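Journal club prep, notes for RB
We'll compare a predicted complex against what the paper describes. Inputs for the zinc ion case:
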Amino acid sequence: MKKTIIILFGFSLILILGCKSKSPIAKSEIPKYFKIDHTLTSDQTHNKFSSTIEPVLRVKSGAVIEVFTEEASDQELNINSPKEAIGTMNADLIHPITGPVYVEGAEPGDVITVNLLEIEIGDWGWLAIFPGFGNLDQEFTEPYLRNFKLDDKNRTINFKDHINIELKPFPGVMGVAPPTDEMLSTIPPRANGGNMDNPFLVEGTLVHFPVFVDGALFSIGDCHAAQGLGEVCGTAIEAPMRIVYRITLEKGGRSIPEPEYENNDYYAVSAYGTTLIEASQKATKYMVDYLEKEFYLSREEAYLLCSIAGDLQIAEVVDLPHYLVSMHISKKVLGL
Ligand SMILES: [Zn+2]
């Protein structure tokens, strides 16, 4: 009898510990069927981040929203634009983002999760060099522009001769309102997300955002049809798109300082910084925090684990004054 009790006790302890070692955040799964609750058109946009921008929609947690997004120039460019159009572009129009969406019940300290259910590429895109912008801005001082006809079904473009690029569309900008009534530029990413230009944030990803103001005020746009890590020339294939996402409010969980994201294969934290070193140090610290809190590791153990299984990734080096670095860790390593 005593033995049975001990075995049972041991078994339930394993069960409890087993549950504790799991992240409370759900795995990313795209449901086969979902019903669209709301639609936002590509003219329901703004292009600054501020707590004072009025929401265009109020939703309940769990709502599925279909949004149409304009490309980054907000129609200043079109598929026939010549490279001279780059020189005369109105920079004030950059980054029209669709929203903001007010999530009922969201309060500072909560987390909202955006599940990217569907991303459909529009029929054209552009890729440019802007003088004075980009990782090699000292060398490339002349405007340059390439336009592409895009096809969502085909999802490849011919770059030149035998060089073909597979399209992996994602929103360059996703963010909640920052805790300020200032009208902040959408160019640099910040703790509220924004212009993260992170090519990992493709269809199927769950993106977690810290909430800074009531309702969260989430917006999305500046979609990229193809972009490498770093976005070195300063632009990606900038294209209008249609996105369907589910937005969910999470209360009472771990609060996060900056956006984090995951799919079936990995969990990731991200951090902005005024240097790549600062951004990488913050990302490492956020991953140590995550592992310590969610997996009951000591800080030293978490730090060691980051060193042998965490992968730092440079999302972008061009959205100055902020660089964005993330750290990924395999869910297999974590037993998830
Ligand atoms: Zn962009």
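Talking point for the session: Confidence is low (pLDDT under 50) at residues 1-25.
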